[in-house]
């Protein structure tokens, strides 16, 4: 008997096989694929001994590898023309789009919707990985292997003998390990924060990292004092009519607000996103309740409608 291990694409592994062909797991996706291709397979019964022929044994099993096979087929010869045309660059927008749809699913509180959107998001790294597997020499196994090693390496308090007191010490150790990985020389604490990151998220990450090495106010009052200082400087820039200066001071004021949020343990991106959801809902209630187009409302009518929509929104909130 000859044992043949099946990889991701089972059709590639059975070429030129002859004689009796057995399969160790008829529930595996490869059994269906090979059968559809016209290959006669004999399932192996429990306890059956095979003396002659070839026994096919799947190397990888489970829904994840079935999905990986589908992506591989879509991108490979005879696959989907649209998928085949995609590149890392062309797929960037879909990665971002699917991430935001996961955010919405989380906020909806619907587990089924979250499961669906996580699947859509999972497809994106598989597409990128399989493009490389097709065109270069690495794929999802190398991606998984690299992050596996990184997680073990950067969690010595879990996988080693390092002791930590709290999550702050975990982050400090993480930074030290990360710097040592970059060649051992001094590295900026701000190294590696993506410049393409959403600005509010990036500002929060910059402020957190700077604070971890001591660039910090002594207390919350100091942050509020800085806010007042930046507000005064913005008012001065507006009075002078210097647009470049105004933009600079608006940026300073926004960054100070981000630091305020950090001091009170609020994620500014999440806070603003939730506020925009509330505003959008409230504004749409105003549109629905207004007897005339909103642009025709007086200031008092605007105020009354806003209050009504706020009450209506509160009554609809669980």
Structural key phrases:
318 residues; mainly alpha; Helix Hairpins; 4 strands
CATH architecture of the largest domain: Orthogonal Bundle
Query: How would you classify the helix and strand content by structural class?
Result: mainly alpha
Largest sheet: number of strands, sense, barrel closure: 4 strands, parallel
Strand order of the largest sheet: 1-4-2-3
Q: What is the terminal-to-terminal distance?
A: 65 Å
DSSP helix fraction = 55-70%
How would you portray this structure in words?
With 318 residues, the protein is mainly alpha-helical. It folds into 4 domains: 2-60; 65-153, Helix Hairpins; 188-266, Orthogonal Bundle (Helix Hairpins), CATH 1.10.287.1080; 269-316, no CATH class. Helix content is 64%, strand content 5%. The protein is built from 14 helices and 4 strands. The protein has a 4-stranded parallel sheet with strand order 1-4-2-3, with no helix packed on it. The radius of gyration is 29 Å and the shape is elongated.
Topology:
Layout: E1 2-6, H1 10-13, E2 21-23, H2 29-36, E3 42-43, E4 54-58, H3 63-75, H4 81-85, H5 88-108, H6 111-135, H7 140-153, H8 156-159, H9 167-181, H10 199-212, H11 220-240, H12 243-263, H13 268-289, H14 299-316
Parallel strand pairs: 1-4, 2-3, 2-4
Helix pairs in contact: 3-6, 5-6, 10-12, 11-12, 13-14
